[in-house]
Specification:
Elements lengths: L3 H6 L5 H16 L5 E2 L11 H13 L2 H5 L8 H15 L8 E4 L1 H13 L5 E5 L6 H6 L4 E5 L10 H7 L4 E7 L11 H18 L4 E5 L22 E6 L12 E5 L6 H15 L6 H8 L9 H16 L12 E2 L8 H9 L3 E2 L1 E2 L9 E4 L4 H19 L1
Parallel strand pairs: 1-10, 3-4, 3-5, 5-6, 6-7
Antiparallel strand pairs: 2-8, 7-8, 9-12, 11-12
Helix pairs in contact: 3-11, 5-11, 6-10, 12-14
Length: 395
């Protein structure tokens, strides 16, 4: 007999993926250049040339076994050392290879982090708006994801509601900054206050409450915005990172878990990740990609186009009457829809070939997410479609 819970999930597929598939099909009818597809967060800028050059060099010069063989369970030692050294340079924390576990992107890193610190029935708290895949990521471990309602004024943390929900059953708090879908960055003030509260509650309950920091957008931060290192604020932090957005290589599935060196069980936790892999079939990301990213750890793709696109859209949306908190990073913007039902709003937008994602799936009904990781020329052409949509539908 097939497992019912996975059959049930077939009726709740990702709204983002469904809209992306619609955009692709519509593109076959009218030309994809005429579909203003803001659905999927797929990086649009070229991979750094250094990454491509390193791949070519290795394929020419290195042996098959080194490039294509299995890596050690925790990742290639030299790569883990390089990642640790980079983190120490950037954030001033004494990372060593013993604190690093190579993973298949941020999703793979999170899969290990959740299993490190929770058992079935434990709770993990996160904050709306949040990446909707957190639901299956957490709930299919046997733990339970609970969502703190959003602060729609600033998209920081509603500490009054967090304190109510931070019960003894909570073993971890999950943050995502810069945030998908709001584009907001948690301030130092927010992180200080969160750290103090978690320390207080850990002492009160007699067990550690871990802070899991999902950081795939860490490098996409706009001018004038400070993006503090979450791990610098709280010792029991587990950093989950992906190179997908910083290097524009989401298909390569490469990232890492970095356990704060100040966490008492850091070395044990990383070794445990190797054992968790045995249970979830992880078995390390490709050796060649580990080696390639190790050569470009302090480099990124040219991410400036995302800020350009954000400024264009933010200005236009505000002029059209949208309520919108200006993003501090990522390639997402999260305005309030022009009617209460964001799903209905997004359905109406499809008639103008505007593919937008309703905020309901992110835990923020009434809002819409736009992933503006598309060519600036296409962003500019989409403005006329927005104007027609708003004028003809809402005025």
């Amino acid at each position: 007999m097939l497992v019912q819970k996975y059959k049930d999930m077939l009726s709740g597929k990702s709204v983002i993926r469904e809209l992306s598939e619609f955009a692709t099909a519509r593109g076959q009818e009218i030309g994809y250049e005429n579909v203003f597809d803001y659905s999927l967060g797929n990086p649009s800028v070229p991979v750094p040339q250094e990454f491509t050059d390193e791949m070519i060099h290795m394929l020419k010069e290195k042996g098959t076994g080194e490039l294509h063989g299995y890596s050690p369970s925790l990742g290639i030692t030299s790569v883990r050392e390089a990642v640790a050294a980079s983190l120490e340079r950037r954030f001033g924390l004494p990372y060593r290879k013993e604190h690093i576990f190579m993973a298949s992107g941020a999703a793979g890193a999170l899969a290990h982090a959740f299993r490190l610190v929770t058992q079935p029935g434990d709770e993990i708290l996160t904050f709306a708006p949040y990446f909707p895949e957190y639901g299956p990521y957490v709930n299919l471990t046997g733990a339970v994801l609970k969502v703190v309602p959003p602060d729609t004024e600033r998209f920081q943390i509603r500490f009054d509601l967090l304190e109510e929900m931070l019960t003894k059953k909570v073993k971890a708090v999950l943050v995502n900054t810069p945030n998908n879908p709001s584009g907001m960055v948690y301030s130092g003030e927010t992180l200080h206050r969160l750290s103090d509260l978690l320390s207080q509650k850990s002492a009160e309950y007699g067990h550690e409450i871990y802070l899991i920091s999902d950081e795939p957008y860490r490098e996409i931060v706009f001018q004038g915005v400070e993006a503090p290192c979450v791990s610098a604020f709280y010792d029991n932090t587990i950093m989950c990172y992906s190179f997908s957005k910083s290097l524009s290589i989401p298909g390569e599935r490469i990232g890492y878990v970095a356990v704060n060196p100040r966490c008492g069980d850091a070395g044990t936790m990383v070794n445990m990740c190797g054992q968790i892999s045995r249970g979830i079939g992880h078995n390390c990301p490709p050796s060649i990609i580990q080696l390639a990213v190790a050569k470009v750890l302090d480099r990124t793709a040219d991410l400036s186009v995302y800020e350009t696109n954000m400024e264009i859209l933010y200005k236009e949306l505000v002029e059209l009457g949208f309520t919108c908190v200006k993003p501090g990073g990522t390639f997402y913007i999260f305005p309030k829809a022009l009617e209460e039902d964001a799903k209905a709003f997004c359905r109406k937008a499809l008639a103008y070939d505007l593919v937008l994602v309703p905020g309901d799936t992110f835990g923020a009904p009434g809002y819409i997410r736009m992933a503006y990781c598309i060519d600036t020329e296409k962003v500019e052409r989409s403005l006329a479609a927005f104007r027609r949509f708003v004028e003809e539908t809402y005025r």
